[in-house]
């Protein structure tokens, strides 16, 4: 990690580096059997662009020299977002109540393949969440990504359940995770 710098930026900084971010995303995934990488990359660009309008959007970028080697971005969860709609199993009363300041969505965390397994992802994760004021974080994951689920759980995330994908979603359902904040409570 000595040769990697982390920088926290806002939505206004992203358009100038969106192509670099999309390139890092594509590299992080590489070719996946049964998936159309062009469709997946296009869907990512759409998500990344629309996220820029979200409340309290932030991105943390990891660079080695001038190259983006990883990034994480997210934003505050708006009450009208219906993030928890259809959550199974049924959560406790009040769990899905959102105020606009209660929960941060960790929308994307990606590390180029050559940099994976070197602590970049964890550093990005901790830097992003360490700068947030919400009481908890949430993320969505592909239900088949069991190795990723194990990684998240090792970082302290709690699997809450599944929600159906919305029309046009990449997956028919998503796993929802939650992590209590502040970040100093995260296991190492």
TrEMBL record:
Q: Name one GO molecular function term.
A: acyltransferase activity
Which Gene3D superfamilies does the UniProt record give? 3.40.630.30
Cross-referenced SUPFAM superfamilies: Acyl-CoA N-acyltransferases (Nat)
> Which keywords appear in this protein's UniProt record, sorted alphabetically?
Acyltransferase, Transferase
Q: Which organism is it from?
A: Hamadaea flava
One short Pfam family name for this protein? Acetyltransf_1
Q: What name goes with this protein?
A: GNAT family N-acetyltransferase
Q: What is its EC number?
A: 2.3.-.-
Please report the stretch or stretches of sequence annotated as the N-acetyltransferase domain: 4-182
């Amino acid at each position: 990690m000595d040769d990697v710098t982390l920088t926290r930026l806002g939505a206004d900084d992203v358009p100038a580096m969106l192509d670099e971010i999309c390139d890092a995303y594509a590299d992080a995934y590489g070719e996946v059997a049964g998936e159309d990488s062009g469709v997946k990359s296009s869907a990512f660009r759409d998500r990344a662009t629309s996220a820029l309008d979200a409340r309290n959007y932030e991105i943390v970028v990891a660079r080695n020299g001038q190259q983006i080697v990883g990034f994480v971005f997210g934003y505050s969860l708006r009450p009208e977002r219906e993030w928890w709609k259809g959550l199974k199993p049924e959560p406790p009363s009040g769990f899905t109540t959102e105020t606009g300041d209660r929960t941060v969505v960790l929308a994307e965390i990606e590390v180029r393949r050559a940099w994976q397994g070197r602590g970049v992802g964890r550093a990005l994760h901790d830097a992003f969440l360490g700068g947030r004021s919400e009481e908890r974080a949430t993320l969505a994951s592909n239900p088949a990504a069991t190795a990723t689920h194990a990684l998240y759980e090792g970082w302290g995330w709690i699997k809450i359940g599944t929600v159906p994908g919305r029309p046009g979603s990449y997956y028919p359902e998503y796993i929802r995770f939650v992590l209590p904040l502040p970040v100093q409570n995260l296991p190492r």
